[in-house]
From TrEMBL:
Organism: Macrostomum lignano
Keyword terms, alphabetized: Membrane, Transmembrane, Transmembrane helix
Location in the cell: Membrane
Protein name: TLC domain-containing protein
Membrane topology term: Multi-pass membrane protein
Record has Transmembrane helix as a keyword: yes
InterPro entries per record: TLC-dom, TLCD
């Protein structure tokens, strides 16, 4: 009689899966940065974009931007998937990606803090070897310098995960995945913001790509970070079957206060972006008008 051997399925402890997700995020973002730096260093001595040659510091700065772009794209995609799958019941519907991406994405903040600190240190300190790989022993001085120069960014990257991670995974009791997905979509303008930094680094501010990217950035900021708040309130009104005007009285006051604070910050940053864009276009228009006047003067001199 033949025996049928059925392989047993080994149950992996859930906490081990969670740890692996964090490790995977750490490896993914770090490796992505290293690959980007290696690729860009191949163009160090080759003129690109207005004969601009890349330095080691340029390679680090642009790689930081590239990783931020990819992280934001993943976050927006995950947020969209979660929202689409939880749209029928925005409070009780859940999706596994909500918490999985939180664990995967948390290491990004600390990776980004470390590489930004190292890039700043290598840019400001008189070092013979300006490669990050040769200066890991200077990590503590780099973090101290970053704290002195950019306290707000340091606090954002260090403290935000400490507040965001526990509240997202433990304090909400598995409710509101739809809302969490919406906040993942907050990353929508980030790819355009980072692309703007890259183009500025390459001295391409006068290019049509820079101009069009700036306009799309404003639109993404408006849709992803400002209009998202009234959209969430509208979805809640539809969910509860109440008029939009009654939503404020039906949700916890702490949620309303949080939305007001966060929304006010988004409006403030949007106004800064809008003011910068208007100033840029004024400068471009003045340059065009100046060029036209100069050309007319030349034509008149030849005509006379």
């Amino acid at each position: 009689m033949a025996l049928t051997i059925i392989p047993s399925v080994v149950a992996v402890p859930l906490h081990l899966v969670h740890i692996l997700e964090v490790i995977l995020g750490t490896v993914f973002f770090s490796l992505l940065f290293c690959v980007s730096v290696k690729f860009l260093q191949g163009y160090k001595n080759k003129p690109i974009c207005n004969t601009r040659c890349l330095t080691d510091n340029d390679c680090y700065d642009i790689s930081i931007n590239v990783v931020s772009i990819i992280q934001a794209c993943i976050a927006v995609f995950v947020g969209w998937v979660v929202m689409m799958n939880c749209r029928h019941d925005m409070i009780y519907d859940s999706h596994w990606l909500t918490n999985a991406y939180a664990r995967f994405g948390v290491p990004y903040f600390y990776y980004d803090l470390v590489v930004m600190a190292m890039a700043l240190y290598l840019r400001t300190e008189p070092l013979k070897d300006r490669r990050i790989s040769s200066n890991w022993h200077n990590l503590i001085p780099a973090l101290k310098l970053f704290w002195v120069k950019r306290k707000l960014m340091f606090l954002h990257h260090f403290a935000l995960p400490l507040m965001f991670y526990p509240s997202l995974l433990y304090f909400r009791n598995g409710l509101g995945d739809f809302v969490v997905g919406a906040f993942y979509v907050f990353e929508l303008p980030v790819p355009y913001i980072q692309t703007r930094h890259i183009l500025a680094k390459l001295d391409c501010k006068a290019s049509p790509v820079y101009i069009s990217n700036g306009l799309v950035m404003l639109g993404a900021m408006l849709i992803g970070r400002i209009l998202m708040f009234p959209y969430l309130y509208y979805c809640y009104a539809q969910y509860r079957g109440i008029p939009f005007s009654q939503v404020l009285g039906k949700i916890p006051i702490k949620c309303t206060i949080s939305c007001i604070i966060l929304g006010s910050l988004q409006v403030y940053w949007f106004c800064i972006m809008l003011r910068g864009t208007v100033s840029y276009f004024r400068k471009v228009i003045r340059q065009w008008l100046g060029a036209d006047k100069g050309q007319n003067a030349v034509d008149n001199s030849f005509g006379s």
